[in-house]
Amino acid sequence: MTQIIRDRKIKFALIGCGRISARHFEAVYGDEAGNIPPNADAEFVDV
Question: What is the pLDDT of residues 19-35, one digit of tens each?
Fold first, then answer.
């Protein structure tokens, strides 16, 4: 998987599409250690 979720465009895309949830924020920002959760939505991981 190509993980470029931290790109600002992806964050705007999440906000723009109106499908915000805690899981989406976790997928964008990762946990406290900055790790991307393996269960992040594939549509936001594969870009």
Answer: 555 555 555 555 555 55
User: Residue 30, by phi and psi: left (phi above 0), alpha (psi -120 to 50) or beta?
Assistant: left
Question: Can you tell me the distance from the alpha carbon of 25 to that of 36, in angstroms, rounded to the nearest whole number?
Answer: 11
In this structure, are residues 24 and 41 in contact, taking their beta carbons and an 8 Å threshold?
yes
In the chain, where the domains are located = 8-45
| Eight-state DSSP code of residue 40 | S
Closest CA to 23 of 9, 6, 40, 1: 40
Dihedral (CA of 35, 38, 41, 45) sign: positive
- What's the pTM value of the predicted model, to 2 decimals? 0.16
Q: Record the tokens describing residue 14, joined without a space.
A: 């999440």
